[in-house]
């Protein structure tokens, strides 16, 4: 018999929060491993750098189109195992298999070398890796939306901020584990001397993800879907019907949800340049300082050291995230009614941190800025989900069901993913202009440019704050 730690809609104790949100830590480890080491791994396989850029568009594109589809399917899914858990398990299986084949793709393709010459083998390896990255991005979507929707389903309205704070804590832990792993020689540490660093990282990520998904799914009990929903699953689960339900739900979002998604759109336009180019920016600062001191003779050694210092910057960010999430969780009773205010302050702090790069010329100062950025990023991982979770449960209280949670979370992810796509589209021509004019500092410029949407998010947050105040006044 499975261990039922908590059931849907019931008051939960601390263990329940930790068990259910722990999966997000392991999911974040997967993303940290892939994002921090994936580009270098793909380049070692022989993939051209411009193809790697196309490869990494898989995440935002799948987040835009796949996640809302999966979320809506889970809303209408009738099963004795629940609505969310089948999607979580299916997504976990697909994610684990994708990571496994990605880590071993070179060995798998080389086993066909009796049929392929060297060039054909390299092309086959790169092609397989390209599709495996897209497969990984696809299967993460049902896993992610399932976990987020299940958290909303399981906990009542007054415990949604606590659940989101726990989730933010585990996301911080996942980032910290992923960042710290880059400083350890895992093949030597684990005794797997024939394995590469990337393969060891993938092994740790898959074992951690599998174990936490199994425990999380066994430790909760979902309310079975209503009979009419179960019957409807068989007749209305087609693509166009699901898209119609997504569109209908988007029309019926309340003002708070619309504000949150618009805020996240601006916020993630600001986050994209820093998260994708921040480590390279800090590495360039370090390399520039060292080259001035040592000259061009030590170029290759300086570049290798600079890459490690770029990774160190995100270790600093992860430490700050984890510390902030612990403080948020500890002070939740005092901050629960001021979530919007905290979010505003974090966006302003982030914009100031980005603009301060105008005055930074050393890598040590940039590490301090990165630490402060981690505070803002931790709040970004906590505040929107706490507010959306409360609103979804309020809709359940009014409508007698919570079957639209997956669709709402999917639409929320659309706002985040579209923002990243647009931000990438803005950064690309800027890089081309700087390169064609022979100018340096393109990375610093796009990072500073992120202050504009960050301030736009803070402005939009003022509207959200007023809406929440009116909502509380009406409730009184």
Automatic annotation (TrEMBL):
UniProt-listed Gene3D superfamilies: MFS general substrate transporter like domains
Organism: Lophiotrema nucula
InterPro entries, per the entry: MFS_trans_sf (IPR036259)
Topology versus the membrane: Multi-pass membrane protein
Membrane-spanning segments: 40-66, 87-110, 122-140, 265-287, 307-328, 340-361, 367-389, 410-431, 443-461
Keyword list, A-Z: Membrane, Transmembrane, Transmembrane helix, Transport
Protein name: Major facilitator superfamily domain-containing protein
Keyword NADP among record annotations: no
Molecular function GO terms recorded: sucrose:proton symporter activity
Recorded GO CC terms: plasma membrane
Localization per Swiss-Prot or TrEMBL: Membrane
């Amino acid at each position: 018999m499975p261990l039922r730690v908590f059931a849907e809609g019931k008051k939960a104790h601390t263990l329940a929060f930790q068990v259910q949100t722990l999966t997000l830590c392991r999911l974040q480890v997967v993303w940290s491993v892939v994002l921090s080491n994936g580009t270098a791994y793909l380049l070692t396989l022989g993939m051209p750098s411009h193809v790697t850029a196309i490869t990494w568009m898989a995440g935002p594109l799948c987040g835009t189109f796949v996640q809302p589809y999966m979320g809506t399917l889970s809303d209408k899914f009738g099963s004795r195992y629940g609505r969310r858990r089948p999607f979580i398990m299916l997504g976990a299986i697909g994610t684990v298999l994708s990571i496994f084949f990605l880590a071993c793709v070179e060995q798998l393709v080389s086993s066909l070398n009796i049929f392929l010459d060297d060039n054909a083998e390299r092309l086959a390896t790169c092609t397989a890796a390209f599709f495996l990255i897209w497969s990984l991005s696809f299967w993460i979507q049902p896993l992610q939306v399932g976990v987020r929707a299940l958290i909303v389903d399981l906990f009542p309205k007054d415990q949604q901020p606590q659940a989101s704070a726990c989730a933010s804590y585990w996301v911080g832990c996942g980032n910290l584990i992923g960042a710290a792993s880059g400083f350890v020689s895992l093949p030597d540490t684990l005794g797997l001397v024939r394995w590469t660093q990337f393969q060891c990282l993938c092994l740790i990520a898959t074992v951690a993800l599998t174990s936490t998904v199994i425990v999380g799914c066994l430790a909760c009990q979902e309310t079975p879907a209503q009979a009419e929903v179960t019957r409807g699953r068989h007749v209305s689960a087609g693509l166009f019907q699901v898209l119609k339900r997504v569109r209908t739900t988007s029309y019926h979002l309340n003002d708070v949800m619309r504000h949150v998604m618009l805020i996240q759109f601006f916020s993630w336009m600001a986050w994209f340049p820093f998260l994708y180019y921040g480590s390279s920016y800090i590495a360039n600062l370090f390399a520039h300082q060292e080259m001035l001191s040592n000259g061009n003779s030590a170029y290759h050694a300086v570049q290798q050291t600079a890459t490690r210092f770029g990774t160190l910057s995100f270790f600093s960010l992860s430490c700050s995230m984890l510390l902030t999430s612990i403080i948020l969780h500890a002070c939740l009773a005092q901050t629960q009614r001021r979530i919007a205010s905290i979010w505003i302050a974090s966006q302003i702090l982030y914009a100031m941190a980005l603009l301060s790069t105008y005055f930074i010329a050393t890598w040590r100062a940039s590490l301090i800025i990165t630490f402060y950025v981690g505070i803002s990023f931790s709040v970004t991982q906590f505040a929107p989900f706490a507010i959306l979770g409360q609103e979804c449960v309020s809709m359940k209280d009014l409508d007698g069901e919570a079957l639209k949670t997956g669709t709402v979370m999917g639409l929320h992810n659309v706002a985040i993913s579209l923002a990243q796509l647009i931000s990438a589209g803005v950064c690309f021509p800027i890089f081309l202009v700087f390169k064609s004019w022979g100018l340096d500092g393109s990375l610093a410029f796009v990072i500073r440019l992120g202050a504009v949407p960050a301030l736009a998010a803070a402005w939009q947050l003022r509207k959200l704050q007023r809406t929440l105040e009116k909502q509380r006044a009406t409730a009184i």
